[in-house]
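Response to reviewer comment R2.3. The reviewers asked that we include at least one raw input/output pair. We reproduce the pair for PHP domain-containing protein here without editing.
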Amino acid sequence: MLVVDPSPLCYPAHTKPAMKPAPLPQDLHIHTTWSDTDSSIVPEQTIELIAALGHARICGISDHFEMIVDQFDDYRAAVAAQGLLIGTEVNGHEWVPLALDADCDYRIFHIWSAPRCKSHLTVQQKETLRPYIRRRDEVA
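Raw output as returned:
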């Protein structure tokens, strides 16, 4: 009688079953083709592809607000259709008022050189119970 070890380690390299890594706890900083002038985005980086990957237990799309502001309702519908959290990345203090009015689950703020605006934003985020994601180098 032949006994076969079913362990994937005993398979030849070309026949090993594909192993999918455990999903991340969360990934909320994902850009797609909706951020169409972001040079790091490739044409395949669609909302549908991100949803199909299933790489995180909590997953959200956060395309650049200034790139989607004029079509935000369509963007929100496209993200929601895939069952993902609806977010946006806000680059610069001039976009903050509009971004705060946008109907989404979360926002990621990049405010590079406006300390007055940053401190105001922190207070406003706490008052509205909306998440505020701090930079790693920011003092709590």
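The two ends are 66 Å apart (CA to CA). The chain has one domain: 27-128. Further pairs are available on request from the corresponding author.
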